[in-house]
Amino acid sequence: MSALPPPEGAPAPELATIAAFYRRVQWTALALGVLWLLWLLAPVLTPFAVSALLGWLGDPLVDRLERRMSRNTAVVLVFTAMSLLLLLALVLLVPLLQQQVVTLVHALPGYRDWFLHTALPWLERTTGVQILSWLDPQRLFGLLRAHWESAGGIAATVLGYVSRSSFALLGGLANIVLVPVLTFFFLRDWDLLVARVGLLVPRDHVDTVGKLARESSDVLGGFLRGQLLVMLILGVLYGVGLWLVGLELGILIGVVGGLLTFVPYLGPASIIVLGGIAALVQYGDWPHLAGVGAVFAVGQVIESYVLTPKLVGDRIGLHPMAVIFAVMAGGTLFGFLGMLLALPVAAVVNVLLRHAHERYLGSRLYVGERGAPEPARIVLPAAHAGEPPQEPPGPA
User: Fold this and answer.
1) Torsion angle of C-alpha atoms 53, 55, 58, 59, degrees rounded to 10
2) Do the domain assignments include residue 188?
3) Which helix or strand (DSSP H or E) is residue 263 part of?
């Protein structure tokens, strides 16, 4: 990309600075344009992103098998193994989850009655706020009649969405069919794609970019593989535990809690909240509620002291609040594609921030004219006065 010509008559020492400024403006505009294009193409890019993640996760195994056979044969073996695992999971889970969904549909009237006749009266007695009066059918009908025009607009919107749902269904089916095809090509050509991208890197920055890329790949690969195993194990553990407690919807709640484990605190919170409500609606006694609490406690102990340290560790190096923000921001900006790519992007950004932090500590801005000072010490509050001083932490 060529820089814009500097203005005529500028002093010679300032020409380089002006040219650098124009280059930064151009690169910033290019980055904003790419983000805008991603936002527009998010629904189309979703199957490509899923396939790229699967291809990237399977590439190390393909590289190992390639030492003993051709790459095409290794790709076929890995792709077949991934397909069989997915097919086995579908065969085992789909009928089970279908039965759980049917049970949930039949149990909805019981949940409604418990909510109206047990939960809300208890909440009214506790808070003193009359909630049931706002749920009176005549009041609701009056509110609907008073806001009939807006309700009509909402109804028209819903009907329009329903009319477009068939096209959305066809698009979803097309994406499902595309994922295995794209995954196969990503597995086969992953090393070639990486090599072509590497050729685009300016030669002066090849070593730095290569180091950052390897570090990002190692951090992200270890985290994602470990997190997938944690989600699978916790889903099975919570589902079996709640089923043993006697909850009709225990397996469904356990699967939901396991899938939400990648968001800190959301998975465990869903187990205790959904499991507690299911126990109160189905049994309405303290022993089953205590059973849900026991399953939650056992799962937390196993996750905190066994699964996370062994399988995930601190590979991604992100604070839980940063993970929650990344997932929410990605979902808000790019929908499902953003949620899917939130943690990979956050991990790469964290690696770049660590590199920038190291560069800053060695820069003249930090060191100053007199040389490097002694590392700064953190003054702890009185409650931690007995602990040793700590070095300043790196970026989150």
Assistant:
1) -120
2) yes
3) none
pTM of the shown model: 0.66
Q: Are 324 and 271 in contact (CB under 8 A)?
A: no
Residue 72 lies in a domain: yes
Candidates 334, 326, 333, 329; CA nearest to 353 is 326
Domain carrying residue 42: 38-116+180-200
User: Would you call 393 exposed, middle or buried from its count of C-beta atoms within 10 A (0-12, 13-18, 19+)?
Assistant: exposed
User: For residue 59, is it within any domain?
Assistant: yes
Q: Which helix (H) or strand (E) holds 341?
A: helix 320-361
Exposure string over 242-278, b if 16+ CB within 10 A, otherwise e: bbebebbbbbbbbbbbbbbbbbbebbbebbbebbebb
pLDDT in tens, 257-276: 988 887 777 888 899 999 99
Q: Which of 339, 262, 276, 273 is nearest to 308 (CA)?
A: 262
Tell me the mean pLDDT in the region 118-132.
76
Number of domains in the chain: 1
- Angle at the Cα of 143 from the Cα atoms of 141 and 146, rounded to 5 degrees: 110
* Residue-wise pLDDT tens digits, 279-292: 998 888 889 999 99
Q: Per-residue pLDDT tens for 57-91?
A: 888 888 889 888 888 899 999 999 989 988 888 88
